[in-house]
User: Fold these one by one.
Assistant:
Number 1:
Amino acid sequence: MASLRDIRQKIGGVSTTQQITSAMKMMSTARLGRAIEAINLTHAYISKFEHMVLDLKTELPDFKHPCMVARPVRSSCIIVIGGERGLCGGFNHDLNRFAKGVIEENTAPDKKVVVIGRKAIRFFEQKGIEIHATFPDLTMKTLDNELFNVSRTLFELYRNEEVDEINLVYTSFASAVSRYLTSIRLLPIDISTLPPKPPTKVLLPFDFYPSPQEIFNQLMPRYLRNLLYRAIIESSASEQSARMAAMTSATDRAQEIIDELKLDLNRSRQALITREIAEVISGSQA
Amino acid sequence: MKKSFALSIALPGKHLLTFEARQVMLPSKNGYVGFMAGRQPLLATMEAGLITIIDIEDHQILFGTTGGFAEMLDNQATLLCDSLIEVKDLKLDEEATTPDKIYIRDTSHMTEKQKREYVKLLMINRLRKTSTTCDKSHKTITE
C-alpha cells in the first residue's frame, strides 16, 4: 500500500491539474460566448448581402456573372479550416480525417489545398498531402486584416481560371453541445440555395451605380470574405465548445480521482492507527 | 407620402445601427449621391468617403466609410460598410495638423489603412467647417 505521504502528493498533483482544467474550462466558456455573439452578428450581415445578391438576380434574371456559372472542373481548391490548439477532445482528429476523405474523394485532376489552423497544417504535413498555402494563427483579432487579402487572392484564382471551383471544409457550429462536419462549395455560387427573401411591395426597376457587372465584381470578394469569416468563427466556436466539454469532463474526472485518493488516504491512515494500537496492546501484553 | 425612411448600417461582426432618416448622402463611384424617402430602388457601390445622414429632427450625423454597398428598396435603405469611422474615433490633436483643403482622391488603389487615414482627414475637415455631429442617439440592435 502507498504511504500517506505518497497519497498526499498524488492528491496535491491531481488538485493542481484540476485547477488548470477548471481555468481552461472557464476561458473556453468566455471565448465561446464571444464567438457565439460574433456568429449572430455575422449572420445578420451575410443575410443582408444575400438579399442584395437576390435583388440583383431578380432584377436581371438573365445576367450571368462568372461566379455563378459552373465550368468543367480541371482544378479544384479545397480550403480546410482546422483547430489552432489541442486539448479539445476529438475535434481536431475528426475534422482532419473528414477533410482528408473529402480531398481523396475529389475527382479533379489538379487539387490545391489551402489549410487554416496550426493543428490541421501539422496533420496534412505529416500525411504528405501537398499544401498550396497555409494560414496559421488566424485569430479573431487578426482576422479582419488578413481575411480581406485571403479572399481577394482566392477570388483572383477563380476569376483567372486557375481554379474552377472553391470548396470549404470546416466544423459548423450548431450549439454549445452540438457541431457537425461540413463540406460546402463556395464558388461558383448556386443562387437557388440562398435562403429566400421576404417579398417587397415596390415593383419599380432598380437603378444600378455604376453597373450590375461592376457591383457584382465588388460584391463577390466581400461575400466570399464574409462566408470565410463566418466559417472561421464557427470553427473557432466549435473548437471552444469541444474544449469546454473536454475540460469539464477532465475536471469532473480529477474530482473523482481526488475522492478515491482521499478514501485511500483515510483507509491507510486508519490502518496505520489500528496497527499502532495493535502494536501498543501486544507490547503491553508482553 | 412619407417623408422619412428606415436606414440601417451593417458592419461585419458588429451591431446593426438603425436610424429614421430624412436624407442620406453617400460616396459613390461617380461622386456623392443623396437619396430621400420614396426613392426608386437603388443598388450602388460605395467608395471611401463620408456618409451624412439627416434624421427626422434635422440633425446631421456624420460617419466615414472605407467602402461598401448601398441599397434602397421599399423605403428602407441598407448600407453594408467594410468599416465605419465615427466622430468619437477621431483624435482631437489631429485637427491642428489637418490641412484646410483636402483634395478628393481616387481610393481604389489604397490599402485599407490608407483609406481610413484619408477618410479621417475628410471628416476632420468637414467638422471644422460645419456643426455636424454624430452624438445624436441612434438605436443599436442585434438581429
Note: The mean pLDDT of chain B is 81.
Number 2:
Amino acid sequence: MTFKLAASPHSHQRRTTQQVMRWVYMALIPGILTLIYFFGWGVVWQLGLAILTAWAAEAGCMLLRNRPVRFAWRDHTALVTAILLAISIPGLAPWWIIVIGTAFAIIVVKHVYGGVGQNIFNPAMAGYVVLLISFPVQMTSWPLPQQISQFDLGFLDAASVIFTGFTPAGYNLEQLRMGADGLTMATPLDSLRTALNHQLTMSEALQRPIFGDYAGLGWQWVNLAFLLGGLVLLKQRIISWHIPGGFLLGLLVPAAVVWMFAPEQSVSPVMHMLSGATMLGAFFIATDPVTAATSNRGRLYFGLLIGFLVFVIRTWGGYPDGVAFAVLLANMAVPIIDKYTQPVTYGHGEHP
Amino acid sequence: MSSNAHLKDIEAGHIWSFPGGIHPPERKELSNQTAIATMPLADHYVVPVKQHSGAAGEICVAVGERVLKGQPLTHSGVSMGLPVHAPTSGTITAIGPGRIAHPSGMADVVIRIAADGKDEAFAQQGISDYTEVARAELLERVRAAGIAGLGGAGFPTAQKLALQRPIDYLIINGVECEPYISADDRLMREHAQTILDGAQILLHLAHAQKGLVAIEDNKPEAIAAMREALADYPQFSLRVVPTKYPSGGEKQLIQLLTGRQVPSRGLPIDIGLLMQNVGTAYAISQAVRQGQPLIQRVVTVTGEAVRRPGNYWVRIGSTVAEVLREAGFERESPEQRVIMGGPMMGFTLPDTDVPVVKITNCLLLPGMKELAPAQQEMPCIRCGACSDVCPAVLLPQQLQWLAKAKDYEGLEQQNLFDCIECGACAYVCPSEIPLVHYYRKAKAEIRNIAREKAKAENARERFEARQQRLEREKEERLERHRKAAEARKKAQAEQVKAGGENPQDAVQAAIARAKARKAAQQKKNED
C-alpha cells in the first residue's frame, strides 16, 4: 500500500494539454489542405521548416534552462505555434523567413518570458509581426492562386523556389506572381486597398480576376475551411464561443455599418469575413488561451477588441490585413480586461 | 423578484441551477446493489475524543475502567465540547495520543477500548412524545448523543439548531453527489421512515414550518422510498435535483432549491435556511426516540480493489484495517491507495490503523487503472476550463498564480475563502495541477498570518496593560506615601494640641542649641 499523501481530487478527467493541442492542429487540417489546393506545395515545405525549427528551438531553450526536453515536446504547444506561423506566411517565401520567425516566436516570445503558459504575447503572431516589419517584400509576396496562375509548380519546384529563389526552369518569385496580363497581383485585401486608394469604386476594383465569387479566389474557401475547423473545436469544447464570436462581431458590425453608408468606397462585410486571416485568426489565433483574457466575459471583450482593431487596421491602417497587430494589441490589454471582468463570486451578489 | 413570488416559486418546486459543475463517472453501482450489512464486533476500538469541528469534550473515564456500549467517554464540560461514546462494552486500555484520520496523518488524544464481546448496553431512555419536552432539554439530548453533521463537515448539530432565527425551510440533504459513495442512498432506501421522523424532530427544534428533501435523480430507488414515506409528513416536500457534482454542497443545493445564495462568510440561516444531512436526521431520531447516542454510522466501502464492496453499519472507533478485512480487501499492489471519503474530496490515509469517525462516509480503494495516480504537474496554459466548472464562480487559474506567488492580498481580492474545495477545477485541469492543494495551502498560510497577527496584537495589548499597571502602582505608592506623611504630620499636630511634646520642637531646639554654640565659638575666636 502506498501511504504517500496525495491531494484530492483523486479523479481526473483525462484531457491533457497534449490532447487539447492535438485537437487544435487536427482542426487546422481542412484549412491547410485548402491552402495547398489554392496556393501550392510551398505550404508543406513551410510547415516542415517551421516544425523542425520549433522543435530545435524548444529543445535548445529547455537545455539552456535545465529542463527535460521531452517534457516540452510532449505538450505540442511549440508544434501549434509553428503550424500557425507557417500557414500565415506566403507559401513561396525564402526558407530563412520561416526559420527566423519560428525561432523568434519560440525563443524570444515564449521561453524568454518563462516558457509555456507564461508568455504575454501570442508567439505565432509576434513572430509574424517581426517578419512583416523586417522583411515586408517577402512577407507580402503571396503567390497567385494556382487556378489563375500560368505556372504549375510541383512539390520539388516549390522547394527549389523556397531554397534557391528560382524554379528549376529559372523563374524567380516575381515572375511566378505575374498574372496573365503581365501584372503582379497582390492578395484580394491588398488589391482592394490599393484600388480604393486610387479612387476606384468597389465595383471597378472587383473586376480583377483575383476576386472570385465573393471574397477573393481561393481565400474565401480557405476561410470557410478554417471556419469548419473552428466549429469542430467549438463542438469539442476545446474553445468557447466568446473569443471567435467577439472577434467576428467586432469586425462585422463596424464593417456593415460603414458599408451601408458607402458601399462603393468600402470593403464589404462578406469580404471582411472571408478574406485574409479572419477565420484563422478568430478560431485558432485569438483563442490561444495563454495570451487571452481569463473569464468568459473578459474573453468576449478580448474578441470584440481584436475584431474591431482588425477593422480599423484594414480600413485606415498601413497594412492590408491586421490580425497579427490586433491580436498583439489585445494581448497588451489583457491585464486591464481581467481586472474589470472578474465575475461575481457566489455569495457576493445582492441577496433577494 | 418580490419575496412572495420567490417563495411561490420555491413552493411550486422550481429547481434553479448553479454555475459550473462536472459529471465525473458516478460508479455508485459498485456499492449500492446490496443492503447495508453489519460489521461483526471487533476486539478493539480506538475512539478519538474530538471528531467534530469545535473543542473536544472532557474525558470522564479512566484506564482500566469497564464501560458499556453507548456510555459517554467524554462530557461537554466547560469547553462545551461534543461527547463521544463507547462503541461496545469492554475495558479501557489506554488514553493518549494516537494516529487519527486526518489528511496530514496527525495524532490526537484517543481512548482505546478492548471489547469484551458482550456488547452490553448502557441504560438509555427514549422519548415517545418529544413535543411534550422543553426545547432546551431536547437540544441537550441531541448534544449528549454526540451528534455532529454526518454529511462531512461535522458541525455539532445542537449548536446549529440553537440559533433561534426565523427559518423558511429546513432542507434535508440526500443528494450525495460525490461519486462512488452510496451510504445515504442505501440509508434512504432502507430507513426512509426513521430519516423523516428525525427530520420532523429537526423541524420542531428549528421552529420551522416547511421542509424540503433533496435527492439527486440518479437514485430512483431512494426517491421512490422517500416519496412513499413522505405521505405521512405533509410539512415536507420532495425535490429531485439533476445529477451534477457538487449539487450536494450546502451552498449549491441552496441555490438549486431556492435560487438564494448564502452570503460570503455567512450562514444559511442568514437567508432563512437550515440544512441537515439524511444521516444526521436518522441519528436524531435514534437519539430522541431510543435514547441511542451516535456510535455507529453507514460507511460505503468501495473501489475495484475491494472484493465485497457495499455499505456497512460500522461502529465509530473501528479501525480502517478491520473494516477493510470485512469488505474483502487484501493488499495487492504496493501502490494501492486507501482514500477516506470520495474521489473528489476524500484524502489518502497514512495507514489503516486509524479509526472510522463520525464524518467517515466512505473508504475508497481504487484499482490502479480506475483512478490513476496524479501525473506530473504541467504548466498552466490558462485554458480556463477550471473557471467554466467552478460552482463558486471563482477564477481558479488566477487563484493558482496568486497562491504560487504568495500574493495573499490578491487572493483575498479574488475571494479565495469562498472556495469550497470541491475539486471540480483540478478534475478538469489538462495540466493536472493540484489546484485545491494550492488553495488549501494558501488558506492555511493566510490563517497562520492572521493568527500571528492576533498573537502579536495580544502581546502588545498585554505589554501596554502591564505598563499601565506599573504606572498605576507607582502612582498609588506615591499617593500612599503622601497620605502617610500627611497622617504623620496630623498626628504630631494632635499630639502638640493634646499638650504632648512635639518631636519637631525637640529638633528645632537642638538646631537652635547648635547654632548658639556655633555663634559662641565664633565670638570666642574673634576675641
Note: The interface with chain B takes residues 1-13, 15-17, 19-20, 71, 75, 77, 115-118, 240, 289-290, 292, 294-296, 299, 338, 342-349, 351-352 of chain A (CB under 8 Å).
